[in-house]
Amino acid sequence: DQQVKQNSPSLSVQEGRISILNCDYTNSMFDYFLWYKKYPAEGPTFLISISSIKDKNEDGRFTVFLNKSAKHLSLHIVPSQPGDSAVYFCAASVGGNKLVFGAGTILRVKS
Amino acid sequence: DAMVIQNPRYQVTQFGKPVTLSCSQTLNHNVMYWYQQKSSQAPKLLFHYYDKDFNNEADTPDNFQSRRPNTSFCFLDIRSPGLGDAAMYLCATSRAWTGGTSNYGYTFGSGTRLTVV
Predict the structure, then answer these.
(1) Is B104 helix (H, G, I), strand (E, B) or coil?
(2) I need a surface site. Which of A24, A29, B21, B58 has the fewest CB within 10 A?
(3) Could you tell me if A18 and A76 are in contact, meaning their C-beta atoms sit under 8 angstroms apart?
(4) CA A3, CA B50: separation in Å to the nearest integer?
């Protein structure tokens, strides 16, 4: 029973273009959402978050959009850079603890 | 730098032979988590400690145990590893959630990749 789903295992984008990573969830009780980035041989690192009271949060090149009615969130990276190539995990929680993760999307940014 | 350290990075153990993975933190976070991640799957929460309080997930096998002797250290014990337990094991820490919209995301260690032979 996957409560958080990332349906695209991988995404390839040209340098300078927009990368859009998608995530769907099923638990309507989730009220806090995060994106993590993971490089090979390292643990996931926090990227950006959004609470359910917002529909958009921006941090530099990274923007997360939340559509509660569709139970969908997305991460936009503009412009994409080769150093953004990594695995991106979507995560969600009720009340901030016990994050539930998606399976991840491998992003490759080609130069 | 404050961080979460997992040892060892790679662990090979024999089928059925008990193995212990360790995690230490210098962040003074009061919550510590253990996740299991199998290839191309989502990290799955096994259990977490809120200070000394142990919280097991309902579907975590009895084969998996944990100890937290103090704030800084947490151990994952696998009593009788099977081939299906081969995975990456991730330790993470966080501050307790107190509401608001601040980031209370986890800080992860680099993981221990367990191989069972």
Answers:
(1) coil
(2) B58
(3) yes
(4) 23
